[in-house]
Amino acid sequence: MSSVLYDTPGPKARARNWIYTAVFLVVVGLILWWVLGTMADKGQLDADKWSPFVTDSQVWTTFLLPGLGETLKAGLIAMVIALPLGALLGIGRLSDHRWVRIPVGTWVEFFRAIPVLMLMLFGSALYVRFSTVSSELRPLYAVVTGLVLYNSAVIAEIVVAGIQSLPRGQTDAAKAIGMRKGQIMANVLIPQAVTAMLPALVSQLVVILKDTAIGGAVLGLAELLSMNRQISANYSNTIPTLVVIALIYIVVNFMLTTFASWIEGRLRKSKKGTGAVVAGDVAEVDAGGAAGVGEAP
Amino acid sequence: MFDFLTSGQYDVLGAFWVTVQLTLYSAVGSLVWGTVLAGMRVSPVPVMRAFGTAYVDIVRNIPLTVIIIGCSLGLNQTLGVTLGGGTFKEIGFRLAVLGFIAYTGTFVCEALRSGINTVPVGQAEAARALGLSFFQVLTMIVLPQAFRAVVAPLTNVLIALTKNTTVAAAIGVAEAALLMKEMIENEPQALFAVFGVFALGFVVLTLPTGLLLGWVAKRVAVKR
């Protein structure tokens, strides 16, 4: 096995790699030893701190699963509203009319620049002042508002990139057979762009799910992360609880990411779509990272 | 309407200064940590590659909020880690920076790795033919070109980091978002003005960064 950076190792290189492996393992081992040692000192490794997650089903039925449900609920509601809104904003950005293009562009750029946490705080204050939403529902409303404002702007950028990824000939051909602008958009561009955008949109769902945790920490939404307080109040096991919560997030998000790359793989192979795939990081690096950009052509 | 700015009751500039400091320390830290991670992910040693891959896959899927809260509740309050900070304020700031570095490093790593892929294989082969070692090839031939190729994606990471620093409000670091929360509670009649000021603050922080580094990205890109 050879790569850009190194050749298939010969006997000398193999010996050197063994030394590197040994040194690396010793360093990692030392760090682990320190972490586990400190945790043991503070009693976080005691079996009774961890066993509730296996033996006591109430931890799951009363706290973790309802919390996960709330996380998924907020995320899905936000996605369902943000998707059509983002599509509209994206199409607006591509409009031929300046009086549509410029305000929509400003709107999108503005809400992309504002941290989602601030949008949630703002949303919450809006509901306090101008609506009669009950205080139990307010966190959910505020979190969804913040997520929608932010993510619809991001999705608008994904839509723009998706439409622009289509070959110019598509529009030209549609014009040549006498389609109007609206028809071109609805019948030719959007259906193809949607397939190209799917992976990026699924990745965006990961970002939304991750961001609901902000609502738990700042606005008191009863989502997965906020359950940490209640569980560790009952069993005084802060670290085990945080580890379990992080694991649940990892599993859910990992499934979504895998789903996204499965779609991407299918799209690349299928003959129906254009085969173009919009990188998940067009507008946002929060979830997709910057992978994909600058990948070898 | 904007009298909350002149009343001297709130230190808006001070709060934004904390945001800027959080961003700068975390940016430098995650650049270093991300480079180390990228180095591990492309190294010839399988154990290091496995560690790099596992770290990136795991940490990227954990919400930043969980990491920051974990730093505060887990590292500090349960394990007693203070990172050499004396006061509550210092400890919170340093823990937040640690959390941001741990999280943002993964994005830097992924950006760099895609940059490494843009370097033609022939260059590394030529370098090896001259007798350079893996470490020399990486630091003298490949990384300099990779960095120039990924200025644009790294700019996105930096802008995302700037916005993400608001999450430090969750553990009480006195940055912009925390002050905004306090001001919205105390000055409900000026809600739109308060939001406008803080929103403007973030536009002022992120817009020039994007424009400046976008220009730099075009200047330094390796033309192939």
Characteristic terms for this protein:
heterodimer, A: 297 residues, mainly alpha, 11 helices, 75% helix, flat, B: 224 residues
Tell the overall outline of chain B: globular
How much helix, percentage-wise, in residues of chain A?
A: over 70%
The quaternary state of the protein chains shown equals heterodimer
- Global shape of chain A: flat
Q: Biggest sheet of chain A, in brief?
A: none
- Main sheet attributes: strand count, strand direction, barrel closure of chain B: none
Determine the most extensive contact between two protein chains. A-B, 66 and 72 residues
Q: Residue-averaged pLDDT of chain B, rounded?
A: 91
| Secondary-structure element string of chain A | HHHHHHHHHHH
Please describe the topology of this protein:
The complex is a heterodimer of chains A (297) and B (224).
Chain A: H1 11-41, H2 47-50, H3 52-55, H4 57-93, H5 98-113, H6 116-130, H7 138-164, H8 168-176, H9 181-219, H10 227-235, H11 238-269
Chain B: H1 3-6, H2 12-41, H3 46-60, H4 64-78, H5 88-117, H6 121-129, H7 134-149, H8 151-164, H9 176-186, H10 191-220
Structural overview:
- The complex is a heterodimer of chains A (297) and B (224).
- Chain A has 11 helices and no strands.
- Chain A has helices spanning 11-41, 47-50, 52-55, 57-93, 98-113, 116-130, 138-164, 168-176, 181-219, 227-235, 238-269.
- In chain A, α4 (57-93) crosses α7 and α7 (138-164) packs antiparallel against α9.
- The two termini of chain A are 22 Å apart.
- With 224 residues, chain B is mainly alpha-helical.
- Helix content of chain B is 78%, strand content 0%.
- Chain B has 10 helices and no strands.
- The chains are: A mainly alpha (297), B mainly alpha (224).
- Chains A and B meet through α1, α6, α9 and α11 of A and α3, α4, α5, α6 and α7 of B.
